[in-house]
Amino acid sequence: MNKKGVRWLYGELPQLVGQGVLTSDAAERLRGHYGEAEPLRPARLAVVVFGVFGALLIGAGIILMLAHNWEELSRPVRAALSFLPLVLAQGIGAWTLARRPQSLAWREGASSLVFLMIGASISLVAQTYNISGDLPRFLLTWSLLGLPLVYLFDALVPAVLYLWGISEWACHLRFEDGFNAGYWPLLVLVLPQALRWMREGRYGTRPTVFLWAVCVSVTVAAGVTIERVLPGLWIILYSGLFALMFLAGEFWLGEAEGFWARPLRHFGAGGLLVLLFMLTFQWPWKEIGWNHWCSGHERELSWRALPDAVLGSVVPLGAIVLLATTARRKTVLGALLGCAPVVAVVGYCLASLTEAYAPSAGIFDLYLLAVGLWLLVTGLREAKQGQMNVGLLALAALVIARFFDGDLSFLLRGLVFIALGVAFLVTNVVMLRRKGGSHEQA
Amino acid sequence: MNKRNGLLLLFAVVAAAQLAVPASMIIGRERTLREGRVFKFRTRPVDPEDAFRGRYVWLSLEPGAVEVPETGSWLHNQKAYAVLGQDTNGFAVVERLEHSRPAQVPAVQVRTLWFNDRTREVNIEWSGLDRYYMEEGKAPQAESAYRSHSLRTNRTCYVTVRVRGAEAAVENLFVDERPIRAWLRDHPEEKKAER
Fold first, then answer.
1. B139 and B131 in contact (C-beta within 8 Å)?
2. What's the burial of A319, exposed, middle or buried (CB within 10 Å: 0-12/13-18/19+)?
3. pTM of the model
4. Hey, are the CB atoms on B25 and A122 less than 8 Å from each other?
């Protein structure tokens, strides 16, 4: 049960015992079973946030002062000063571990300061000695030196900074045509700590923020680590990746409340809807598949093909395995969005075999139509305004895109826009009235 | 040992590793600057449109292309080692381009750009030697001096680089045979004139 539920239950217990519904023994056993209900303490979160911001601002100030590159100082003195920010931050870190190990604000603030000062010190040395170039190597060194802070301080911010660092590294290496599939083992290095947070409470703030960061990082990295040899593989990989996120969120984190508390589900669903919309156009399907194999550098081909083969198969297969579980659980939305990788594979094979683009785009027209309609209808039926509007938005995007493809008159296009606008207004007004009515009855 | 002391000990190890990286950079560069052989590099004419880079002068060294026996053995954007020599005027020349780090001879790591099959030349980028940091405020003047002295008609700019094995460090930037800082002191009129 989530924390909110536990707090509600504990609030009810005295009344239930008083009315004789539960014995006091049973109430105690319930308390023992669910453990401490953490009280809501917004002030605590504010302290952590301001602690981290304060640390970052001080760090940035020190860096800017040293970046002035004081010429009055000799080179060895400037070199020694380059250590200053890092040594100061490490001192604060050691003090935190020794004296304030229980304070989340100190742990997060000190560890993020140390993390940033590692990069600052390396940059200041580089400035003193006119060292330039090799940005990817700098990012990788920085991230790896910062990673232990996640474990030592049990801290979220360094974990998010590490994710940023390795994603940047993968992107820059891609621009330099380097082999960046190392992103995936690097990602695994930070996961044990995330699993520890999840074991402490799946719906806690730290695992939730971490999962949002992972979703963004993995989405960026997937794009830059694949497609060295097989054009168009992104279609299968991304449909698999977003479906995997959505289904994993549905299964393992299904009880969270609110939009922000369900990163996997909402990031996956959002990503899928955008992807489905893109795939209703013909451009993604052009010149893809095995007939357009990139054979630029023959001797590097085997290495380059590896991430394509592994990611392009493991991720969609993982999604399909989860989809099979969905079929047993009979959740319609799970099945509907979960089958995206299967549809993508069908579209991909069709476009590769026939070199015709319209059929694959047409399949996704129908697919997005089905998803949009289902979201709209169930949203209306179950009075879920957000879901209804997402469905309506998907349908509107589809209709508008197809109308712009076709050679239709302004009059007809104008009428379609008005019809869509009216549909949005009417459904929302109806929904609000219905909700208002049910509140009054209650 | 309790948990707190264990954590502190681990943190000490991690902190030492964090300090070791900038420290090793400093030691390597200091050794290169003290023990390395000096090479004078001509600077290439620079694009006057090239944006002002803030706190450093954007260097562009010569030679920009190297003749190789066969361009086919090189890929675009590949690491390579430029084995250095000197011409009769005392400026650096690239004797040959190697795929791996050569032993015993001074060589600088570069990146390959594009190829000219007709002249059998590989264009290279001196990627590790393209910045010369100045004090904030002086860099724009230095850059404008560097630009006006690296034109096709007026090329009196050069850079000294210390090379030890395969490690290289930019030592100084010269304009009219004077180190840039001294040159700026002698030419206060250069201040903001060309910004």
1. no
2. buried
3. 0.82
4. yes
